[in-house]
């Protein structure tokens, strides 16, 4: 994996003979973890990680895996390894069969030092609370899974969730979640380093609310065609919001871009 932007200093050592990597140091988990470290800010930081095909599809046949690669999964793992919480829309949980995050030996010490449990919590955003509470995501997590919902969520579903040991977080006065309130609601639980893995409908709302601080967008060198959503979905914004490019890595034709929301 090599860095395209910002440009690398000329004295970076070339890869070892016989190595199948073009740049051993960036393939290293420690180096990637350093490169993707959360900024030191006062308060929560909401980062998104998504993969898109060349023609803008966020999935192929309802799954993102056909667009992904080994390097994409590596960065996916690194971003999880750095996060306090992974925020995800209920439809992605249902379609992708989400499971609890797995502890990874490579991140154990780093997480311990940062005062983090071995894995990030998963926070599922849902209005309906129509979730399979018997599934491992809820029944066998290392840290309790959260459900983020509105104040008027269906009572019987709330009971079901609580009986399953799920922590319910309210962020919104009506039946739905107000996406702009989510980062602060999670931060009140000590979850500051936030990572959202979509899906497109949830991510579109975070962007629209001005709550998205950073986008890690992998561009896959594949064409999907069809009518799949883009990585952000929703009604057009009044004014397009600007993001600033902060880094680009490349591996096997995949571009791992990173943007920060431009602030006035
Ligand atoms: N390319 C990628 O990196 C990537 C990443 C993730 C997902 N995906 C793909 O995206 C597809 C699913 O994405 P999606 O956009 O359809 O769904 P999504 O954003 O994952 O989930 C939508 C659901 O989240 C809940 N939700 C969203 N906004 C809400 C709000 N304001 N208040 C309360 N609940 C809210 C609702 O759940 P309830 O229905 O339970 O109320 C809604 O139905 C899948 O095919 C997946 O493979 C791709």
Summarize it.
This protein is of the alpha/beta class.
Question: Any descriptors?
Answer:
264 residues; alpha/beta; Dihydrofolate Reductase, subunit A; 10-stranded mixed beta sheet; 9 helices; 26% helix; 22% strand; globular; binds NADP nicotinamide-adenine-dinucleotide phosphate; NADP; Diaminohydroxyphosphoribosylaminopyrimidine reductase; RibDG_C
Main β-sheet description: 10 strands, mixed
Structural class: alpha/beta
Number of strands: 10
Report, as a whole number of angstroms, the end-to-end distance.
33 Å
Quaternary assembly:
single chain
Helix content: 25-40%
CATH class: Alpha Beta
Give the bound compounds: NADP nicotinamide-adenine-dinucleotide phosphate
CATH superfamily: Dihydrofolate Reductase, subunit A
Order of helices and strands: EHHEHEHHEHEHEHEHEEE
Taken together, the total number of domains comes to 1
CATH topology: Dihydrofolate Reductase, subunit A
Strand content: 15-25%
Overall mean confidence score, pLDDT: 93
Tell me, briefly, the overall form. globular
Keywords: NADP, Oxidoreductase
Protein name: Diaminohydroxyphosphoribosylaminopyrimidine reductase
Organism: Streptomyces oceani
Pfam families: RibD_C
